[in-house]
């Protein structure tokens, strides 16, 4: 049955055109696609004009090549497969790789009898055969490598200036120029990325909310980090930070994990996952209350007696966490170890809570 359905869909896709696919979309969907491809529209732009403009843009060879230069290896592998097969059954493993294609109009996601399929149209297969040269593959490898370094840099620093990024990249790779970085960054913006380019900075995606506010997150970050150089160590694999969930399991990290195993969970895998969540709370400068709420959400209870032994471990974890406001450094790396801990925010918060409790008792 599946093979029969695939053959029917292949036959349909081979006869269909991109224009037919676009015409079948709702006007609001066409406007979203137009925005993704930087097509100017007006509220009065009619659906016929939207279809015409999108079709022209999607079939523009230069634009098509630029879009594909910004793709990940997983996305390219998926399109290569579709070029060979025309139709591919869709499942959750393809969700990430197909997301950009489906939103931008390069692929169609069609449902038949409760099963979803990805389809590609003949015009796009033809365009891909034109751009898919050795030169394109070399450019693609460069773009994908730069993408990995931008992901790592924004994961570790939050933000990185193009000039600083250029220095980091060239320390590990065949040197490229600032012109190359600027040229490549335009293509990187054409796909779904966990970062974006703004005012000569690559910024982590979480900075987007602050851009409309001059006193927002970006300007506060630039002010807070002024004069601090970016953390960089040749002894640490920089590209480990491509994984947004990567954590250096330091002695401080292991101390918290061991405490959770011994006193709470008894399960090292659960304790490891929870310690990672606590680490990221510390990296974001969360309060002690927020960290305790994270424990509650994980169905972990820390008694008042246990808290006195646990908070010092959290303070040490916080001081060893790599933070955006330190440009990837830890508190311990920027200050003499052990200094200022008495006034650490966790201890201050504990004293404030204790004082409030005593006041309530007196009343």
What does this structure look like?
With 363 residues, this protein is mainly alpha-helical. 60% of the residues lie in helices and 7% in strands. It has 18 helices and 6 strands. The strands form 2 sheets. Strands 1-3-2 form a 3-stranded antiparallel sheet, with helices on both faces. A 3-stranded antiparallel sheet has the order 4-6-5. Strand 5 and strand 6 form a beta hairpin. Helix 14 packs antiparallel against helix 15. The C terminus is likely disordered.
Supply the helix-strand structural class.
Answer: mainly alpha
Strand share of the residues?
5-15%
Helix content: 55-70%
Largest sheet: number of strands, sense, barrel closure: 3 strands, antiparallel
What is the mean predicted local confidence, pLDDT?
Answer: 85
How many DSSP E strands? 6
Strand order of the largest sheet: 1-3-2
What is the chain-wise order of helices and strands? HHHHHHEHEEHHEHHEEHHHHHHH
Compute the separation of the termini in Å.
Answer: 76 Å
Uncertain ranges: 356-363
Q: What does the overall shape look like?
A: elongated
């Amino acid at each position: 049955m599946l093979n029969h359905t695939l053959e029917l869909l292949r036959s349909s896709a081979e006869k269909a055109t991109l224009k037919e696919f676009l015409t079948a979309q709702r006007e609001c969907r066409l406007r979203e696609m137009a925005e993704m491809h930087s097509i100017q529209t007006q509220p009065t732009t009619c659906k016929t004009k939207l279809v015409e403009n999108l079709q022209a843009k999607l079939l523009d060879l230069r634009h098509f090549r630029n879009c594909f230069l910004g793709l990940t290896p997983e996305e390219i592998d998926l399109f290569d497969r579709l070029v060979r097969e025309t139709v591919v059954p869709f499942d959750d493993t393809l969700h990430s790789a197909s997301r950009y294609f489906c939103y931008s109009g390069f692929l169609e996601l069609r449902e038949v009898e409760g099963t979803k399929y990805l389809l590609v149209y003949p015009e796009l297969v033809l365009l891909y055969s034109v751009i898919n040269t050795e030169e394109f593959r070399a450019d693609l490898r460069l773009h994908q490598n730069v993408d990995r370094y931008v992901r790592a840099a924004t994961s570790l620093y939050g933000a990185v200036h193009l000039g600083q990024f250029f220095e980091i990249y060239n320390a590990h790779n065949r040197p490229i120029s600032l012109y190359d970085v600027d040229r490549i960054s335009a293509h990187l913006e054409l796909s779904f990325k966990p970062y974006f380019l703004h005012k000569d900075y690559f910024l982590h995606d979480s900075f987007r909310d602050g851009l409309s506010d001059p006193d927002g997150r970006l300007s506060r970050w630039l002010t807070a980090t002024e004069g601090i150089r970016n953390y960089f160590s040749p002894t640490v694999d920089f590209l480990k930070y491509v994984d947004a969930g990567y954590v250096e399991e330091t002695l401080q990290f292991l101390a918290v994990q061991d405490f959770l195993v011994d006193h709470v969970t008894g399960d090292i895998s659960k304790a490891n996952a929870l310690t990672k969540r606590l680490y990221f709370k510390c990296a974001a400068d969360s309060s002690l209350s927020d960290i305790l709420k994270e424990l509650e959400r994980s169905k972990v209870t820390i008694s008042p007696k246990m808290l006195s032994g646990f908070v010092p471990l959290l303070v040490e974890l916080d001081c060893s966490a790599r933070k955006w406001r330190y440009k990837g450094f830890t508190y311990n790396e920027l200050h003499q170890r052990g200094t200022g801990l008495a006034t650490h925010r966790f201890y201050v918060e504990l004293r404030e809570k204790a004082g409030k409790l005593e006041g309530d008792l007196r009343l």
